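We both want to read C-alpha cells more fluently, so let's practise on a single case. Would you write everything just below, so we can both look at the same thing?
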Amino acid sequence: MSVVRHRYWWGLALVLLCFQNSLANTGEVVHIGVLAHRGKAQALQRWRETANYLHESIHKAFDIVPLDLDEMSLAVQAGSIDFVLTNPGNYVTLESEYGISRILTMQTLEKNQTLVRYGAVIISRADRNDIHSLNDLRNKSFMAVSPDAFGGF
C-alpha cells in the first residue's frame, strides 16, 4: 500500500470517526455513493479496499454504491446514500440542488506533486485555422460527452 493512499485512508477514517454519532443513525451499513465514470465494476474495484479499511478501522459496515451522474442525483435526493465521492463539478450541482456539504477533499499525487486542478481539452481539426482559444468557439458548435460530465464537457 502506498504511503499516500495510507494517509488518505487514515484521513478519511478520522473524519468519519468525528461523525461517529451521525454514523450511528445511518443503520447497520454506511452507503458511499461513488461516481463510476469508468464503469461500475471499475469503481467497485477501486473503492472496495477503502470500504474494507474503514470497516476494520471503525467497526462499521461500508457499502460502495457505484453510480453515474443521473443515479448520483437520484440517490442523494432519495437519501439512499450517506456519503458521496464525486468530481468537483458534480459536487457543486449536488450542493446547490440538495444542500450536501463537503467534509473531505481528495487530492491526487502524481510524480511527487499534489495536483490541485482538474481540466479538459477541446480538440479541433488541423485545418480549422479559426479556432485557437475558448473565445473562438463563440457561435460555433462542438461535441462533448455530456453537459454534466465535468472532465468530458
Q: What stands out?
A: The chain has one domain: 3-111.
